[in-house]
């Protein structure tokens, strides 16, 4: 049985979305055990009348809530009885708990994960890796998307390792094509950081590095993973999501502007429904924090039940397929090669 803790508070639709998503995941995954953290009375009230396997669900009472406007270090120090910290402490103290899901404060979650849960062997800093749909019908991961703003070439190399193993183990992409976000596709493009990283990535075992990528090509389907610093990655992901949302709004506005467009749209209703679902980030889960000693998945603050369910399944996929063990093994190999070369 794989035990996953779910922080039930902190998101825009909490606790209902977190609880409903957990129950749906329980129903579909018979090897899953869920621990719901948060105000016990409120959780029980939201569970009332719902059908679920009570032998695979537990509640840990934690009445406080960490809000996004709180300073992360103060929040994790002063709100030890919060729903988020209850989940973090389960991962830290209980070897039977494999991972956690939260839709709460990103800053607090990253800080708590690094300081309280810790990193895998040889990991410099953990990184976020959200998943986006591509125009070719596949997916692309972006690593990092906000955990680390100031980085080194070695960190970009590790992001490529994390992301490659993640895509292999959870999404069954056999040989992920890895690109580095840059201002041009030529090998000599970018600042000194990216020039050094380019050389490292091209000589990293277990990484299928295919060169630089310009931001406009993110959704083409030509790449499976894009590595970048957290600042650039966050801007890239949010710009891409925002553009898709605004285009859909514009399309809807234009359709309703003329009767003939409405008639045509009626005939193409199925197409528009499929397009909306394709671009809906709720269907792709959350950003996994790769590199921590246990699985941490950060769902979007506005995650609905479907998104929470997907987040839980991301955590399950990593645990089922030994993500941590495979990552440490490859990082050990890279460290040994470096020692041999330097020696």
Would you spell out the secondary-structure blueprint of this structure?
Blueprint: E1 2-7, H1 16-28, E2 32-38, H2 40-47, E3 57-61, H3 72-78, H4 83-93, E4 97-102, H5 106-117, E5 127-129, E6 131-133, E7 139-143, H6 153-171, E8 177-181, H7 192-201, E9 208-213, E10 225-227, H8 230-255, H9 259-267, H10 269-278, E11 287-290, E12 295-298, H11 305-320, H12 323-342
Parallel strand pairs: 1-2, 1-4, 2-3, 4-12, 7-10, 8-9, 8-10
Antiparallel strand pairs: 5-11, 6-7, 11-12
Outline the structure in words.
With 343 residues, the chain is an alpha/beta fold. The chain has two domains: 1-123 and 291-321, Isopropylmalate Dehydrogenase, CATH 3.40.718; 128-285, Isopropylmalate Dehydrogenase (3-Layer(aba) Sandwich), CATH 3.40.718.10. The protein has helices spanning 16-28, 40-47, 72-78, 83-93, 106-117, 153-171, 192-201, 230-255, 259-267, 269-278, 305-320, 323-342, and strands at 2-7, 32-38, 57-61, 97-102, 127-129, 131-133, 139-143, 177-181, 208-213, 225-227, 287-290, 295-298. A seven-stranded mixed sheet has the order 3-2-1-4-12-11-5, with helices on both faces. A five-stranded mixed sheet has the order 6-7-10-8-9, with helices on both faces. The longest helix is centred in the C-terminal third of the chain and has 26 residues, at 230-255. It is globular. The model has no long low-confidence stretch (mean pLDDT 93).
